[in-house]
Amino acid sequence: MQEEFERLSTGVPGFDRLVEGGIPQGFVVALTGEPGTGKTIFSLHFIAEGLRKGDPCVYVTTEERRESITRQASQFGWDFSSHLGKKLVIIDALMKEKDDQWSLMKVTAEEVVQKVIEAKKVLGYGKGRLVIDSVSTLFLDKPAMARKISYYLKRSLDKWKFTTYMTSQYAVTTSQAFGFGIEHVADGIIRFRRVVKNGRLRKFIIIEKMRQTDHDKHVWEVDVEKGRGFVLLGKVDERAEDFKLMK
Ligand SMILES: Nc1ncnc2c1ncn2[C@@H]1O[C@H](COP(=O)(O)OP(=O)(O)OP(=O)(O)O)[C@@H](O)[C@H]1O
Ligand SMILES: [Mg+2]
């Protein structure tokens, strides 16, 4: 008989059914892709959904300030600010303020782990949601360490009952070094792409890996829409022309 396990809703309309109902509890999922492809906004949906359900949520932001995250969330109708310190902690690696409990003095994997655990203790011991946006920052100056650092993060946070998104940048032009560390360690990989076609920017995702899940295998055209956030526009047709979009 199959063992039962819980899946968490991603909060992105229509996405859950692509992964048999949601992300398996406890998974580490890598959101890998180019700048501006929606990784942060996809992550905000996950947190908004967690807050709606009353889950403890921790968001580590390394490239945008805390205010940038709460403002972006508010554009899609989510009031993150009122949850701060109660069900949500946003750990800010940019602002470097000594008096701020949730500010990182050094941007290292060790500091991230320590703060995330501290946050979890404050928020309560139930099953939580964690976003590390982005892990690439943690190995910017040492890409060869990417895999080791990713593994360290996964291992150190394993017993803290999080389901985790780790975003990572991936640029076709600068080889795959940044994406690679996290991808092998991750239980799931969602790849984000962008293409300019006929003079217009288009965005795509594909689920490349989701352990223990009969996941969708199509390329989906997606977008970020004013007032709504991340939306799935539709499957990309299996025409040669459309396949080229993802290459
Ligand atoms: N209020 C809004 N209305 C419509 N589109 C928006 C809005 N806010 C953001 N966007 C779109 O979302 C994009 C930013 O998405 P997001 O920050 O999630 O990207 P990302 O993949 O995290 O990028 P990076 O790797 O640089 O962090 C913007 O470039 C814009 O196209
Ligand atoms: Mg981002």
From TrEMBL:
Keywords: ATP-binding, Kinase, Nucleotide-binding, Transferase. Residues 6-247 form the KaiC domain. The keyword ATP-binding applies. The keyword Protein biosynthesis does not apply. One of its GO terms (molecular function) is kinase activity. PANTHER family: PROTEIN GVPD 1, UPF0273 PROTEIN TM_0370. This is Circadian clock protein kinase KaiC. It comes from Sulfuracidifex tepidarius.
